Hints:
alpha+beta
Amino acid sequence: xxxxxxxxxxxxxxxxxxxxxxxxxxxxxxxxxxxxxxxxxxxxxxxxxxxxxxxxxxxxxxxxxxxxxxxxxxxxxxxxxxxxxxxxxxxxxxxxxxxxxxxxxxxxxxxxxxxxxxxxxxxxxxxxxxxxxxxxxxxxxxxxxxxxxxxxxxxxxxxxxxxxxxxx
Length: 168
């Protein structure tokens, strides 16, 4: 199984497990789950452009829908800010994004169409400051940047930098 397929399958399994756990827990708190009779009369397919999950007070907790034509599942905190999302880009690349308490993107994991997998960690300013990737043939890469965005560490060393070091 390819890395992309494995990652996608793993994410789906995690989301299904979390949803199942949430449903089970809601049943244990006295909130009735759907009865067998209601489930048998329920429509087999529900079609919508967007689903919004709310808490008993009506606050949004999750949105399943489309952003710019791209499917996404966004989890929302108690302050109505996104904290995590599961996305598929226009290039058909699955990803997971995590946000801080201000709603700023802080981490993302993306499986690129060419098979590369990339983890990007962003500073509070939103700039990528550290990245770890794995090429489609298994070649690892680590990049760390300073506050100005200049590379401090790159492993393996890019071919141009290796040539400069060898000449010095």
